Amino acid sequence: MNPLIPVKPAPADNGAIPVDAGIGLRSPHIEALLQTRPAIGWLEVHSENFFGNGGVPLHYLMQAREHYPVSLHGVGLSLGSTDPISQPHLRLLRQLIDRVQPGLVSEHLSWGAVSGIHFNDLLPLPYTEEALDHFCRRVDQAQEILGWRLLIENPSSYLSYRHSTIPEWEFLAAVAERTGAGILLDINNIFVSAFNQGFDAETYLKSIPASRVGEIHLAGHSRKQFDDGELLIDDHASPVCDQVWSLYRRTLTWLGPKPTLIEWDAELPPLPDLVDQARLARNCLNRASTGRRETCR
Amino acid sequence: MSALNRLQRAFAEDLWGSDLKHLQGLIPDGRLPAVRLLQVYRNNFRISLTEALEAVYPVMQRLVGEDFFRYLIDRYLRNHPPTCGDLTQFGDRMAAFVAGFQPAAGLPYLADIARLEWACHEVFHAPDDATVDLDALSQMPAEDLAGLRFHLGAACRLLMSDFPVYRIWQSNQAGGDEPTTIDLDRGGETVLVLRPQWTVQLWALQAPAGRLLASLCRGEPLGEAVDQALMLDGTFDLQSLLSRYLAGGVLIPQFDSIPSSIPRHLHPAVPEGAGS
């Protein structure tokens, strides 16, 4: 146990996600988390990992929930699919919501299944009027069945479609406007997609309606050099890079402070390293809320 | 069919690598040519699902080696791709698939290892059972106990194999000992998978214990199951074994399986206050 990390007392709250920094909780960290109870504001987990009707994962999640507010982040609902929306999936998510009493529930602006086959990925949608109508109908459906307002996250992407007619930021804002859903703004994804597709990240961020943003994601990416070019790969396998921190700080000046999550999914560091990243985000949030503009690292 | 549906079907064809032409026409070159951008998604799809199965079948992977495992997963994926957004069920047909997978025919025990690893996965995710009322059980008359039937706890699996699967599993744990030689002709093993204190454990059962559980799982009453176990070894201490299984939630009594002579308070269907 790291003696430098203060132990957080059990919250007497209603499970709401505070305007503070949280971490994405992955199973290798759960034991250390429960033992050390680091001073972070909240946790986020991938909903599908806890769809079992009991079992070991849920057992530990419910223990963690006694000490932290939890956000449920879905990766498998495939909101953008043209397949019928999965009623069993929504039932399981609903059951998890009832158990965990999360502060936020989120999903992605993407699709992942067609003709009954799931590809376990967040695949890009074309940004057309047809896709917008379709996606909004699906968000309406999901929100109605879940009885919960979703946050929709912008994906990272490596390609665009010739027939897209709407910039992603307008598409995302339109989804929020039409469905009442909130926005989960992933700054790293915007940075990655902006580089890969050659758009301006600031234009994107400045077009997002601040009042709709319920959460921010930060994560690491890698730069991959090929013989025929270079791509940023959204692998969540490293600390948040300086440029993304900088973009995050500027975003906070435009949007105001928002609950912010550090995601780290591959090549996991020890838990204290993840907590350190969250502390950096918390510093930025503190400075954003007091209006101080000096550097926060 | 909508344009969006056509696009998604074309994307799927591309992910499977079966039609690379159609989708590429819809995607402008970016920092890399379109065909290479799509390669990122083809890789993600394969790698993420391979990793999901590596997490469930680490011993199998160790037994066949990384390259062969990747080949096997590729074939498995084409035959049994995920059909829902919750990956917990993905990989459920591995044992049957391996049993019919010709390139692995030289490893006749591989399918049972797959069954064992899937059993561990299921036990990890299985729901929790209600606690057994041990007091009620201890008050039952002997003749009623003999007629009592049991089922395995929800978080338990019993696996009988013609191969020494426990020894194979044990000697192929990550960070385990140096490889050992296991004599396949030394006979099979029966393994109980369970999760006391939220940790999945494997118990290699002695023959009478295996016989006892196998009989009970087939639905035989306790008396008959005990007789069969004692036929293998008349000195075996079944009493303490049974206590251990009951306390550990391995065996769940089916109180409604005994004749009507049982005390009413033992019957779970009796409304509160109506019994003894």
Tell me what the structure shows.
The complex is a heterodimer of chains A (297) and B (276). Chain A contains nine helices and twelve strands. Chain A has 297 residues and is of the alpha/beta class. Chain A has one domain: Divalent-metal-dependent TIM barrel enzymes (TIM Barrel), CATH 3.20.20.150. Chain A has an eight-stranded parallel barrel with strand order 1-2-3-4-7-8-9-12, surrounded by four helices. In chain A, strands 5-6 form a two-stranded antiparallel sheet. The longest helix of chain A is centred in the C-terminal third of the chain and has 20 residues. Chain A is globular and about 50 Å long. By secondary structure, chain B is mainly alpha-helical. Helix content of chain B is 48%, strand content 9%. Chain B contains 13 helices and five strands. Chain B has a three-stranded antiparallel beta sheet. The C terminus of chain B is likely disordered. At the A-B interface, helix 2, helix 3, strand 5, strand 6 and helix 4 of A face helix 1 and helix 3 of B. Chain A: Belongs to the UPF0276 family. Chain A: InterPro entries: MbnB/TglH/ChrH, Xyl_isomerase-like_sf. Chain A: This is UPF0276 protein GCM10011348_35030.
Summarize the structure.
The complex is a heterodimer of chains A (297) and B (276). Chain A has 297 residues and is an alpha/beta fold.
Secondary structure layout plus pairing:
The complex is a heterodimer of chains A (297) and B (276).
Chain A: E1 21-24, H1 30-36, E2 42-46, H2 56-65, E3 70-73, H3 87-100, E4 104-108, E5 111-114, E6 117-123, H4 129-146, E7 151-153, H5 168-179, E8 182-186, H6 187-197, H7 201-206, E9 213-219, E10 222-226, E11 229-233, H8 242-255, E12 260-263, H9 271-290
Parallel strand pairs in A: 1-2, 1-12, 2-3, 3-4, 4-7, 7-8, 8-9, 9-12
Antiparallel strand pairs in A: 5-6, 10-11
Chain B: H1 3-16, H2 21-24, H3 34-56, H4 58-64, H5 66-79, H6 94-99, H7 110-125, H8 134-138, H9 142-147, E1 149-152, E2 157-161, H10 165-170, E3 189-194, E4 201-205, H11 207-217, H12 222-232, H13 238-247, E5 251-254
Antiparallel strand pairs in B: 1-5, 2-3, 3-4
Helix pairs in contact in B: 3-5, 4-5, 4-7, 11-12
Family (chain A): Belongs to the UPF0276 family.
Protein name (chain A): UPF0276 protein GCM10011348_35030
Organism (chain A): Marinobacterium nitratireducens
